[in-house]
Amino acid sequence: MRVVVLLLTQTTIDKLAAHAISPEEVRQVNDGDRVVIRNPRPRVEGSILMIGPTHGGRVLTVVLNPDPIDPDAWHVRTAWQASAAQIRRYQSDR
What we know:
Blueprint lengths: L4 E3 L2 H9 L4 H9 L3 E4 L9 E6 L5 E8 L6 E9 L2 H10 L1
Parallel strand pairs: 1-5
Antiparallel strand pairs: 2-3, 3-4, 4-5
């Protein structure tokens, strides 16, 4: 899956901060060795999960919704420390 542009709003940045995650860490996941899977519980059609490590070694799960105009742009909705199951999925799909 091609994710070229990450779009963040102030609301999303605040939501990330509540999970102790910075926008830079989300960019690190996108730019690094990550996997992208279909969101099993989407609120928006076409939503995906991006799972991967930050430069600091944290493995994050990031929820992305497609931009309706640009197929390479994705709206960051939230992110969290990946669960054990999500880390296993990341490891098996790499």
